[in-house]
Amino acid sequence: MARTKHISSHPRRSSRKKLNWGQSPRQPEGGSAAKQSSKKRRFRPGTVALREIRKLQRSWNLLIPHAPFFRVAAEFYLVELFSDAYLCSIHAKRVTLMQKDLQLARRIGGRRHW
Hints:
The chain is mainly alpha-helical. 48% of the residues lie in helices and 0% in strands.
């Protein structure tokens, strides 16, 4: 049988503070102890990081905004394509980049970074 907590039917009377006229109010004893107990809790190194990782793994929100990430990915693709095409033009003993160099670079497409 589960234990239950019994509440008394008589309301408790709060003790009144005794007013001392002409005297300064006393500070509660252990005032410095109260300050020490209100110290901010310090977790061990890595605990907060692991908690944050678990929280982010549970969420489905994008951490990087879609449009800026898409721009960076497109820029990376174009830079790689043009650098490969320029290598093709150098291989053909030319300095000018031509359309056939771009086509060859796309056809070869040797680098896959994903």
